[in-house]
Amino acid sequence: APTAHVKDEL
Amino acid sequence: MNLFRLFGDMSHLASILILVHKIQTTRSCRGISFKTQALYVTVFVSRYLDLFYDWVSLYNFFMKVFFISSSCYILYLMKMKFRPTNDPSIDTFRIEYLLGPCAILALIFHYKFTVTEVLWSFSIFLESVAILPQLFMLQRTGEAETITTHYLAALGAYRAFYIPNWIYRYWTEDIVDPIAVTSGIVQTALYLDFFYVYFTKVLQGQKFELPA
Question: Which family does it belong to (chain B) (predicted)?
Answer without folding.
Answer: Belongs to the ERD2 family.
